[in-house]
Specification:
Function: Mediates cellular uptake of transferrin-bound iron in a non-iron dependent manner. May be involved in iron metabolism, hepatocyte function and erythrocyte differentiation.
Mean pLDDT: 82
Family: Belongs to the peptidase M28 family. M28B subfamily.
CATH class of the largest domain: Alpha Beta
Distance between the termini: 41 Å
Shape: globular
Number of strands: 15
CATH superfamily of the largest domain: Zn peptidases
Keywords: Cell membrane, Disulfide bond, Glycoprotein, Membrane, Receptor, Signal-anchor, Transmembrane, Transmembrane helix
Strand content: 5-15%
Subcellular location: Cell membrane
Protein name: Transferrin receptor protein 2
Radius of gyration: 35 Å
Number of helices: 27
Largest sheet: 8 strands, mixed
Strand order of the largest sheet: 1-9-11-10-12-15-13-14
Number of domains: 4
Helix content: 40-55%
């Protein structure tokens, strides 16, 4: 654009010079003597020259002579001037057009634009980068190194960074300084005061054998009293012990079928399949009095040839809040100046919970009687019969206490040059219980490296179209508290600003398999990215080649739904922002040291057979290329049409009950119609985009605004975020979701809800409730279709 402006400036100067030359010729023909007199007077006294010129204008004789001379020459001069002007302007316009067109083709984000939102104007002098996608990819590859990642992971994992600790405060300021040193456009810190739960050093949690009268017979010494479950209920529980496998709903139902009712007992459950919080929630729903959670070697020990084994004396940390964020200010941000009445999240358990080691578990299982556990329930604890119980009576006492704790999240931003108010957010959990090498050190190291590389790229010519917002979160080990509190604070505007969220948590837990947990909108983009990144395991292959299994759907093998314990889940299910999380994992049993004091750099490096830096670099390469595409592409590369297939998949399950509904005078026709409207709206938008001019910046921005808000459209507008924080109808939790509707329909045939249900407590089908569920669900889908259509006069 500067070349065009310079060309026009030069052209204007040449035209002015030509006009001046013609004018001088006219003056010469009017009389040389008059010109010489004027020149002499100008040289002697410029002021006198001006006065004499004014006097001459009143001289009738001179005026007549001037008019006579000009009347003879004016027609020729004007004609001459117009022809020259038209010729030069035409040549200038053509040259400027081709120069401008070439500039647009070389970089499609170089044109200034005006926002479609009130009060927003771009800088008219904005100019874009002339770098191609291949140039940017090569630049990123050039600046990315393994050694810096390796050193960062090692140094971070050696630091004390438990939320609220002095070490965490020190690290927070260090990361803020690192952001500032990279000369980002904006760097700031965000502090929230949240309710966290910690063990009481004066009154540690205990586990005792007791008789039927509650008298203590002996103590089972907890081998690591520092390990606890945040948000467990305080107090004690006394009851006989029952082994409940993974603590899933179907495990509870299996116990009932064997005449072993969890009600009134303590439950012993193993880690895996569902989160700690879900295990406890299920146990409480079936009337259990307390829960003990242990790591079975069958679930967490990796390949024995790698000689890495979790100690039998180690317990595993995990919170038990069935939700995210501060459970004492549900739905609201925990700012220090905000005064809310006492309230608690409905996801807080009312029974005590304690993690224990495999060693203590073996002692407990050895005391159990009753039927033997099914074969698939048996782990690999040696000399353990794995009977179901009940066994001797135990007393579990939990004395954790709540503390108002400041947590600090650090933000750094690189401004976009065309859509600076649209953000690609990249975040990593900074806190950890224990060394946390895999838990958070790897993600934090990748985050710092991305900040360094993109800052360097900007200094070398890269100008992202959209802003890049890098965030180091605090409070992740307590249920993504830092993430959720920030989302709650900006919920009303987040969907207007955040285009995509990329999580770096749990990025490297192995090197065998590559998994992606994502919103459906990003699936197609990920496929193209994986085809551009080399595999860390197989020379000459891309990551796509590594993950694709011949004859199988690669998406079914690689793409997974977002889990509730992921920060990406909070962004999508709560904030309505498409999100993604990547993980390298082990094939078979998971990395055994996660959430333990043994999650050290040495153990993680050993689990990857010394290849931790190489695998981490590959992960950084995947994320880096994703960020380049999301921040640089003229049009946001999100597959907004994919939700038509998602809805169809769920409708297929609803169709199984069409006969039962018809017998009750009910129909699913309106949900079918809403799905059809959404598909037509997506197809229409796609055609509009294909037929539009890419150089029309205002139009492209309007398309981007509609695309980036698609995820938000699927947040139910008919429920309160304070009561149902996860309002997403496909990924959320509550009666407004498609899953809840399906579970309700199962009651038509007398079936109980499946694992993970939130509606299993109902015993019969309620027609009034179903009608409300179906109506609100239908209008959420219909609202998404209407919003995707664009202007209200385009909605059919």
């Amino acid at each position: 654009m500067e070349r065009v402006r310079g060309f026009f400036r030069k052209t204007n100067q040449e035209l002015s010079h030509r006009f001046y030359t013609i004018y001088k010729q006219v003056e010469e023909n009017q009389g040389k003597q008059l010109e010489e007199d004027e020149k002499q007077e100008e040289e002697e006294d410029p002021a006198a020259f001006i006065m004499n010129m004014e006097l001459r204008t009143t001289n009738q004789k001179g005026q007549k002579q001037g008019e006579s001379g000009r009347q003879n020459l004016t027609p020729k001069i004007i004609t001459h001037f117009i022809l020259i002007n038209l010729f030069v302007f035409t040549v200038a316009f053509l040259l400027a057009y081709f120069a401008f067109r070439d500039s647009c083709h070389s970089c499609k984000d170089s044109v200034s634009e005006v926002s479609d939102e009130l009060g927003y104007d771009l800088n008219p002098d904005t100019s874009g980068s002339n770098l191609y996608w291949a140039d940017l990819r090569e630049m990123f590859h050039k600046y990315l190194g393994e050694e810096q990642l390796k050193n960062s992971i090692r140094s971070i994992s050696l630091m004390d960074r438990f939320s609220g600790s002095p070490g965490m405060t020190t690290l927070s300021h260090q990361i803020r300084d690192m952001f500032s040193q990279q000369k980002l456009d904006h760097v700031w810190m965000d502090t929230h005061y949240v309710g966290l739960q910690f063990p009481d050093p004066m009154r540690p949690n205990t586990l005792h054998w007791v008789d039927e009268s509650g008298n203590v017979l002996g103590e089972l010494h907890l081998e690591d009293p520092d390990v606890y479950c945040p948000y467990s209920a305080q107090g004690s529980a006394i009851g006989g012990l029952i082994y409940a496998n993974y603590g899933r709903l179907k495990d509870m139902e299996a116990l009932q079928e064997k005449n072993l009712d969890p009600k009134g007992h303590l439950l012993l459950v193993r880690i895996g399949h569902v989160s700690f919080a879900e295990k406890v929630s299920n146990a409480e729903a079936f009337g259990a009095l307390g829960v003990l959670i242990y790591p079975d070697p069958a679930d967490i020990q990796p390949d024995p040839h790698r000689k890495l084994r979790l100690s039998d004396h180690t317990a595993v940390y995990g919170h038990v809040h069935l939700g995210t964020g501060d459970p004492y200010t549900p739905g609201f941000p925990s700012f220090n100046q905000t005064q809310f009445p006492p309230v608690e999240s409905s996801g807080l358990p009312s029974i005590p919970v304690q993690p224990i080691s495999a060693n203590i578990t073996a002692q407990l299982l050895g005391k159990l009687s009753g039927p033997r556990a099914p074969q698939e329930w048996k782990g690999t604890l040696s000399d353990t019969p794995y009977r179901l119980g009940p066994g001797p009576t135990l007393r579990l006492a939990v004395n954790n206490h709540q503390t108002s704790t400041p947590i600090i999240s650090i933000f750094g931003c690189i401004d976009g040059h065309s859509e600076p108010d649209h953000y690609i957010v990249i975040g990593a959990q900074r806190d950890a219980w224990g060394p946390g090498a895999a838990k958070s050190a790897v993600g934090t190291a990748i985050l710092l490296e991305l900040v360094r590389i993109f800052s360097t790229m900007v200094r070398n010519g890269f100008q992202p179209r959209r802003s890049l917002l890098f965030v180091s979160w605090d409070g992740g080990d307590f249920g993504n508290v830092g993430v959720t509190e920030w989302l709650e604070g900006y919920l009303t505007m987040l969907h207007l600003k955040a285009a995509v969220y990329v999580s770096l948590d749990n990025a490297v837990l192995g090197d065998d398999q590559f998994h992606v947990k994502t919103s459906p909108l990003l699936t197609s983009l990920i496929e193209s990215i994986l085809k551009q990144v080399d595999s860390p395991n197989y020379s000459g292959q891309t990551l796509y080649d590594q993950v694709v299994v011949p004859g199988q759907n690669w998406k079914a093998e690689v793409i997974q739904p977002l889990p509730m314990d992921s920060s990406a889940y909070s962004f999508t299910a709560f904030g309505g922002v498409p999100a993604i999380e990547f993980s390298f994992i082990e094939e078979g049993p998971a990395y055994p040291f996660l959430n333990t004091k043994e999650d050290t750099y040495k153990n993680l490096h050993g689990a990857l057979q010394g290849r931790l830096p190489a695998v981490t670099r590959t992960m950084a390469m995947v994320v880096g290329q994703l960020l380049i595409r999301l921040s640089h592409d003229h049009l946001l590369p999100l597959d907004f049409g994919c939700y038509g297939d998602v809805i169809l998949k769920h409708i297929g399950r609803l169709n199984e009950f069409s006969g039962d509904l018809k017998a009750r005078g009910l129909t699913l026709q309106w949900i079918y119609s809403a799905r059809g409207d959404y598909i037509r709206s997506a197809e229409k938008l796609q055609k509009e985009i294909h037929s539009s001019e890419e150089t029309n910046e205002r139009l492209i921005r309007m398309y981007n605004v509609r695309i980036m808000r698609v995820e938000f459209y699927f947040l139910s507008q008919y429920v309160s975020p304070a009561i149902y924080p996860f309002r997403h109808i496909f990924l959320g939790q509550g009666d407004h979701t498609l899953r809840a509707l399906l579970e309700h329909l199962q009651l038509l045939r007398g079936k109980k809800a499946g694992a993970g249900s939130l509606t299993y407590s109902r015993s019969h089908f309620e027609e009034g409730l179903f009608r409300r569920q179906l109506a609100l669900l239908t209008w959420t889908v219909q609202g998404a279709a209407n919003a995707l259509s664009g202007d209200v006069w385009n909605i059919d």
